[in-house]
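Researcher: Quick test of sequence recovery. Tokens follow.
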């Protein structure tokens, strides 16, 4: 058989990697450089050209989907079944190993794998046994702690504690959890690798068998390996295996979940006589996009180094839009997306990328208004997220005590010791008397139908809701939302989750307050006697959210994709928007607090840029509602690190209007009838209470028109034109 066919269609560095002689090799594969093709052809080359048995090859990928794709492509290339080959994820291969050697690993033959929900339930059980208050020590945080220790290769007895109460408490949970797992023959995901690694170290005969078998090891996405994965690999490889590590240090973006960029950086030191091969020809993006990516990432230190290039076209410049605020930004993105679709493109060609999940709300609303079908890739829509539904349930109970769905959702969230047995007892009373759960709870307390402890816990919850309601009587909608989030303990509860997930939940709750403020419009005018009250404003908001949740977008058809930058890795789109390019948002404000985080944020931006195939937009806003207040952020430093000749500033139609306060962009898509209202965007105005300001946004026409004015002293305010009595200054 002619093995040279396996090299057909490959460029020179790809051919070098595929046909590399025996030994260790590090393939630094840039974005869009065809690394999957190289891996598949390398496996085929080993089997067909080198005569290696398929059973002697071990290939590691990071997702089950990637593993399935690799197996399929190898089978197509070689026209043989590779079902028995060891191709899979680290966890999948470790699981296969433990199933074969359960006795040596001190496991029952039918050991059970715990998924994430199973593990959380078991940790909660441990905490109840130890009488640890979950409101103070969230179970999800304990799960994170246990998995993080296992990913570092540490058993419970190896965890240092000192006088740190956090470490002491979680070590105790880990110890008891570990004992319970041993007793029940239970294995969580992190345990799969740790247990198999320990087996390598304790059973020399077994290790020798697998070292002799797997002389050829290939690992994809090497920059994403954590401590235990790297240790597992090094022990298995020993001194004789040929290891090919494929990855890109410039795309290492998962440090927050344990990935160590040092693993790929030190590969050449830990694996003898390593040959380094760089795949730098990009088959995805235009020359302009690649030049921008190269310039940006060049600001990072300790890189292995590479320069992406393309034989294709240079393409259009990168467009940069400076918005007044986040609403203007979202409107601009929606308009440009609509133009793409109108010109014959597909909605599926478009991706909107953002640093924080909380950014999606305003963008989602803009897509709904523009009737552009969209999907949240790898996540939930804003109002479907657990922490948002929790907060809305509290708000619903303040408006309507007899909402059973709201009652059930938050009666024990955050945890307050009200178990399922108590809730079922209340349900039974409610069914028997045909009353709401709220009323059933009150009746059960009055009639003594619950055990004393359960009665006390339910009483505390009912009292909390009544107290929250009493305090909220004079509050505006956004103040009420903020009050519910704080007084309920939700912010503290979700905020105790460590890592990116906890941070995202906090930011989403803060964004809910912004959503309420936007909904009520911050109307600054005396309400006529027949105007609706704040209470009905709450009802309107809750109804609006329910209707929004009912807007089922893109069930089946092509849809615009919205996602975090972390979710975008490995994907590509003809049209990409990188939104929120502002200091404090991207790079994230938390990145300044830890060494190396700015570099990881820059790698994240690099990943975002290299998702674009044809057209790329950067957008940022002069003012953005963040954490309940208006933030005036500077444009991201990342914009300054890209050569100016690669970018051009764009406007949403219209022109630049000059005034003494600077410049403001006039949006042709604004809904204000400027002739009827007598104001334009960028207009300087005077208000009797707030002083001088600049019109930055407008909606509606005539007396029902609203304008948002950025006041020098009072900040941004929405005003109803019929009541504001604004005086124009220029």
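Model:
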């Amino acid at each position: 058989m002619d093995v040279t066919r396996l090299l057909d269609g490959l460029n020179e560095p790809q051919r070098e990697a595929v046909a590399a002689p025996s030994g260790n090799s590090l393939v630094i594969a840039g974005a869009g450089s065809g690394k999957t093709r190289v891996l598949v052809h390398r496996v085929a080359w080993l089997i067909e050209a080198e005569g290696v048995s398929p059973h002697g090859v071990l290939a590691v990928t990071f997702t089950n989907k990637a593993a399935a794709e690799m197996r399929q492509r190898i089978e197509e290339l070689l026209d043989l079944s590779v079902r028995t080959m060891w191709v899979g994820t680290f966890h999948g291969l470790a699981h296969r190993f433990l199933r074969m050697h359960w006795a040596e690993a001190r496991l029952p033959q039918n050991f059970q794998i715990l998924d994430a929900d199973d593990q959380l339930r078991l940790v909660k059980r441990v905490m109840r046994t130890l009488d640890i208050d979950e409101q103070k020590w969230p179970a999800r945080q304990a799960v994170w702690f246990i998995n993080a220790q296992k990913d570092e290769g540490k058993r419970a007895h190896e965890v240092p504690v000192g006088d740190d109460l956090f470490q002491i408490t979680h070590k105790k949970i880990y110890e008891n959890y570990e004992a319970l797992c041993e007793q029940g023959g239970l294995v969580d995901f992190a345990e799969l690798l740790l247990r198999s690694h320990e087996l390598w170290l304790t059973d020399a005969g077994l290790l020798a068998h697998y070292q002799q078998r797997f002389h050829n090891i290939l690992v994809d996405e090497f920059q994403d390996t954590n401590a235990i994965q790297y240790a597992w690999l090094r022990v298995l490889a020993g001194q004789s295996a040929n290891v090919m590590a494929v990855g890109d240090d410039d795309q290492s973006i998962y440090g927050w979940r344990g990935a160590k960029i040092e693993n790929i950086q030190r590969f050449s030191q830990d694996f003898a006589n390593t040959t380094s091969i760089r795949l730098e020809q990009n088959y995805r993006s235009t020359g302009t996009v690649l030049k921008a990516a190269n310039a940006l990432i060049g600001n990072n230190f300790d890189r292995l180094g590479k320069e992406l290039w393309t034989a294709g076209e240079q393409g259009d410049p990168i467009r940069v839009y400076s918005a007044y605020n986040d609403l203007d930004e979202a409107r601009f993105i929606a308009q440009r997306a609509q133009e793409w679709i109108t010109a014959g493109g597909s909605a599926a060609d478009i991706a909107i990328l953002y640093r924080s999940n909380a950014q999606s709300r305003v963008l989602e609303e803009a897509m709904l208004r523009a009737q552009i079908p969209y999907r949240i890739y790898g996540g939930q829509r804003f109002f479907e997220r657990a922490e948002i539904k929790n907060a809305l349930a509290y708000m619903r109970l303040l408006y309507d005590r007899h909402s059973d769905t709201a009652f059930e959702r938050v009666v024990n969230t955050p945890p307050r010791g009200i178990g399922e047995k108590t809730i079922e007892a209340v349900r039974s009373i409610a069914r028997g008397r045909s009353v709401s759960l709220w009323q059933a709870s009150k009746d059960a307390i009055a009639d003594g139908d619950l055990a004393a402890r359960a009665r006390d816990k339910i009483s505390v919850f009912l009292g909390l809701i009544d107290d929250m309601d009493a305090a909220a009587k004079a509050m505006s909608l956004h103040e009420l939302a903020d009050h519910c989030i704080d007084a309920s303990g939700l912010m503290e509860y979700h905020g105790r989750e460590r890592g990116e997930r906890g941070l995202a939940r906090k930011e989403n709750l803060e964004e809910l307050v912004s959503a309420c403020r936007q909904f009520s419009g911050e109307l600054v005018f005396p309400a006529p006697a027949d105007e609706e009250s704040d209470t009905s404003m709450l009802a309107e908001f809750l109804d609006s959210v329910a209707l929004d949740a009912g807007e089922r977008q893109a069930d089946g058809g092509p849809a615009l994709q919205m996602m975090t930058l972390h979710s975008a890795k490995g994907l590509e789109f003809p049209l990409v928007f990188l939104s929120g390019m502002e200091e404090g948002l991207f790079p994230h404000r938390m990145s300044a607090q830890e060494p190396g985080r700015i570099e990881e944020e820059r790698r994240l931006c690099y990943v975002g840029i290299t998702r674009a195939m044809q057209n790329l937009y950067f957008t940022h806003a002069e003012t953005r509602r963040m954490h309940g207040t208006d933030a005036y952020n500077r444009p991201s430093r990342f914009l300054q690190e890209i050569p100016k000749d690669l970018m051009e500033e764009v406007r949403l139609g219209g022109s630049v209007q000059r005034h003494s306060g600077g410049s403001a962009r006039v949006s042709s898509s604004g809904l204000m009838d400027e002739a009827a209202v007598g104001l334009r965007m960028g207009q300087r105005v005077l208000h009797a209470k707030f002083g001088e300001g600049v019109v930055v946004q407008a909606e509606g026409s005539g007396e029902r028109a609203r304008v948002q004015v950025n006041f020098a002293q009072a900040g941004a305010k929405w005003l109803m034109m019929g009541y504001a009595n604004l005086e124009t200054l220029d």
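Confidence is low (pLDDT under 50) at residues 522-533, 653-673.
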